[in-house]
Design goal:
CATH topology of the domain at 96-273: Transferase(Phosphotransferase), domain 1
Radius of gyration: 59 Å
Strand order of the largest sheet: 1-2-3-4-6-5
Distance between the termini: 132 Å
Length: 818
């Protein structure tokens, strides 16, 4: 049968409350619990699988409860819960030696000797009681916080008279490194098998390693047939005497091994002789602490260890005598306490003869308190005399009652109770007489109260009538007519209260709705419906409140959503629209939200159009910078088609068109120059006069071109009022015209004129120290024709051009006569 008990499934096991799970193994679970009777912490061990073999092991472990030793865990109880056995034992606040070794490795020699000596003491006591542990290993030794050790898990122990050879299941139960060779071989074993286990643990604590290496079958062979690894091969600071102890404890020949754990403990004390003073001081300190905690039995054990180390130590002898005196006093005090408890219990049960006997025994045991005990003895004797006199008066009371004289009977019983006030029989007899007296008085009082209640009822004073009837019912609760009248009065009273309550509730709810406080109104009507669940008025009020609360909630939702969306719209317009949509899911079709959403969508479209406009402008600027004027025109035409017809788009579009036109004019000039180039090449082949004629023409054209197109620089000197603001960058502006022109003025977009100086202003002309911005440049050609060109000056853009007709030059280049 598999049983899986979890703390969440358990409240108690037996009489023990479950606190938490401590550990879980292949065969059992250990819980921490508390004994509900005395509030003591316990450890509760259960089985996860109940088989006959495991149940037998469990019962064997429980039999270790017969052992009472400071170094052996105390078993409190063996019981069953839901068909599964459990053991309640002492809760140990410490760690297993196995974990200590795993975390710390080697242990100090003094600590090791203390643990092994305590282990020998506990096992020696168990051996003397006829119990062999048979599974001694670090996992079954608990080291408490104060250094004391406890031996646990006697699950595979055997009584001495039941010793037999190791069976296969037994072999599987133990860890073979700690099992004596004779047990592994199936031979008969006794307490010396436990001594072998102690020797292995001693070796492991001293070296941090096992005496026989490995975990497989070869290691098992070494345990049975080969010597252990010498201690000095592992550690050097080990006394020779300790090596001798290990040799005897780990002797494969049982007859060469220690006969008892006490014998081994004595040899270990010899090993610790050089540490005697430190060890004795430690034990004395421990004993004093235990004495302060009034744990004299444990203190005696510790002091006995100290005496074994240093038999002549005067402090240990003196403290041991003091502890023994306290133990004797406690033992005698316990005896006296038990006898006095029996005496008090007998006196409480009015068993006066037994109480006198127990008090007399207690006085004999405790001469020091004999005076106090004798006083109690005399008191019990006096109580016995009073009880005898009380019984005589009781007999007289019974005689008077039989004659119908209840008053005389009550007097006799009262006198008897004054003599024997704790007599339950006298109290019962007097109670019977008093009830009979009271019954006669109650009948008259009930009749009077009912008569008064009828008068109040007739006057519609229901509360007063009910009060009178309750008094009567308390006197005689069995009167049927009384209860009928009480029911009628109560019904009338409830109807009256119901009417008043409804008026009050409606008033309170109306007050709440005026504030408004819907939660309070709902709470009030809900509490009212608990008292009046079927009241139609309350049900209607409840529905009205819920409707008004929902309307108010929607209104609040609309207000908060609009406010939050307005705050979000500037930075997160899409999120603002999503917020409104989420609110519309909660309030579908809400008019204000719907209208607000329409406005948001329109604002969002405006934002999107503005972003698209900026994008087109940015693309156009980039195209202008690299001279892709057609592309810039296309982007700006797209922006215009998309609704962006503001001045910035229009001005930039005009600039792009002018730049494109200028570029086209430059191409024309280049095409115009091409006819002259062949003349220069033919000059060398012509006759001298013709050559002179062509040369003169070329000279005229070159002079004309240089005169008109040789670039000059003019440092711009803006008027004082036209000085650009601090932080505005400056650059240069190239002015040109085709074929040529005179620059008449340059004006910024703010209307401020740029000083051109008094020199030659014919193109090409360059202005330095010009602030970045927009300018309008006026050109005038040789025919007096003027053009105004809008230019943009930036860190990348510096050229501003105008195009005029060139008839004379073109005619001359073609060879036409004027």
């Amino acid at each position: 049968m598999d049983i899986d008990l979890k703390p969440s499934d358990l409240a108690v096991i037996g009489r023990y409350g479950i606190v938490t799970e401590i550990g879980r193994g292949g065969m059992g679970i250990v819980y921490r619990g508390v004994d509900k009777l005395i509030g003591r912490d316990v450890a509760i061990k259960t089985l996860t699988e109940v088989t006959p073999e495991l149940r037998d092991r469990f019962y064997v472990e429980a039999r270790s409860g017969m052992l009472s030793h400071p170094n052996i865990v105390t078993v409190y109880e063996l019981g069953e819960h839901d068909g599964s056995p459990f053991i309640a034992m002492e809760f140990l606040d410490g760690e297993s030696l196995e974990r200590v070794l795993r975390e710390r490795g080697r242990l100090p020699l003094l600590e090791t000797l203390s643990i092994v000596e305590q282990l020998c003491a506990g096992l020696g006591y168990a051996h003397q009681c006829g119990i062999i542990h048979r599974d001694v290993k670090p996992a079954n030794v608990i080291v408490l916080r104060d250094g004391q050790i406890k031996i646990v898990d006697f699950g595979i122990a055997r009584l001495t008279d039941q010793m037999s050879r190791l069976t296969k299941p037994d072999a599987l139960l133990g860890t073979f490194h700690y099992i004596a060779p004779e047990r592994l071989k199936g031979e008969i074993s006794d307490g010396r098998a436990d001594i072998w286990s102690v020797g292995v643990m001693l070796y492991e604590m001293v070296t941090g390693e096992l005496p026989f290496r490995g975990k497989d079958v070869s290691a098992l062979y070494r345990v049975m047939h080969e010597p252990y690894v010498p201690v000095r091969d592992v550690v050097n600071d080990i006394p020779e005497t300790l090596t001798a102890v290990l040799d005897r404890a780990l002797a494969k020949d049982v007859n060469l091994r220690y006969a008892t754990t006490e014998e081994m403990a004595v040899d270990l004390q010899v090993v610790g002789e050089e540490l005697k003073q430190e060890r004795v001081g430690y034990l004395l300190d421990t004993a004093r602490r235990l004495c302060n905690e009034r744990e004299f039995a444990n203190a005696r054990t510790v002091l006995l260890q100290a005496q074994r180390i240093s038999p002549r130590d005067p402090k240990a002898k003196l403290l041991l005598q003091e502890v023994q005196d306290n133990l004797n006093l406690l033992q005698r005090s316990e005896q006296v306490r038990q006898v006095l408890e029996q005496a008090e219990e007998a006196a409480a049960k009015r068993q006066f003869d037994d109480a006198i006997t127990f008090f007399s025994q207690a006085a004999q045991l405790d001469r020091e308190k004999a005076f106090d005990i004798t006083a109690k003895l005399e008191q019990v004797r006096m109580l016995k005399d009073q009880a005898q006199r009380g019984r005589f008066l009781w007999e007289q009371a019974n005689d008077a009652r039989s004659k119908g004289d209840l008053t005389q009977a009550e007097q006799f019983l009262s006198e008897a109770l004054r003599l024997d006030e704790k007599s339950t029989d006298l109290r019962n007899a007097r109670s019977i007489v008093l009830r009979e007296i009271k019954r006669r008085q109650d009948a008259a009082q009930v009749e009077e109260l009912v008569s008064s209640a009828r008068e109040e009822y007739s006057a519609r004073r229901y509360t007063e009538a009910i009060a009178q009837l309750h008094k009567a019912a308390e006197i005689d609760p069995t009167d049927r007519h009384l209860h009928e009248l009480l029911f009628s009065a109560t019904t009338r009273q409830k109807e009256e209260r119901r009417r008043r309550l409804l008026d009050q509730i409606v008033g309170e709810i109306e007050d709440c709705l005026e504030i408004p406080d819907f939660d309070r109104a709902q709470d009030r009507v809900s509490r009212a419906l608990e008292a009046l669940p079927l009241e139609p008025l309350l049900i209607q009020l409840k529905n009205d409140i819920e409707k008004k609360k929902d309307e108010a909630a929607i209104a609040q939702l609309v207000r908060s959503t609009i406010l939050e969306a307005q705050g979000l719209f500037t930075e997160e317009p899409v999120q603002a629209l999503a917020l409104v949509d989420a609110a519309l899911l909660q309030a579908p079709g809400e008019e204000n939200l719907t209208q607000f959403r329409v406005r948001l969508e329109e604002h969002l479209r405006q934002i999107q159009r503005e972003e698209l406009r900026k994008k087109r402008l940015s693309q156009a600027h980039v195209a202008l910078k690299v001279g892709r004027y057609n592309e810039a025109i296309q982007k700006l035409e797209s922006a215009k088609a998309e609704g962006a017809e503001d001045s910035e788009v229009l001005e930039l579009l005009a600039l792009a068109r002018r730049e494109q036109q200028a570029l086209q004019s430059k191409v024309v000039i280049q095409e115009t120059k091409k006819p002259v180039e062949p003349l220069d090449r033919q000059r060398l082949k012509m006759p001298l006069l013709a050559t002179l004629g062509v040369g003169m023409m070329l000279a005229v054209v070159a002079a004309f071109w240089h005169t008109r197109h040789g670039a000059r620089r003019i440092a711009s000197q803006p008027h004082p009022e036209a000085i650009s603001p601090a932080g505005v960058a400056r650059t240069y502006l190239d002015l040109n015209a085709s074929p040529w022109a005179v620059v008449t003025s340059v004006q910024s977009s703010a209307g401020q004129a740029v000083d051109l100086g008094g020199g030659d202003r014919t193109t090409p002309l360059r202005l330095d120290n010009v602030p970045i911005g927009r300018y309008t440049v006026a050109f005038k050609d040789a025919d007096g024709i003027q053009q105004k060109i809008d230019c943009v000056v930036s860190a990348e853009q510096h050229l501003c051009t105008a195009t005029f007709a060139m008839p004379e030059v073109q005619d001359a280049l073609r060879g036409d006569q004027p």
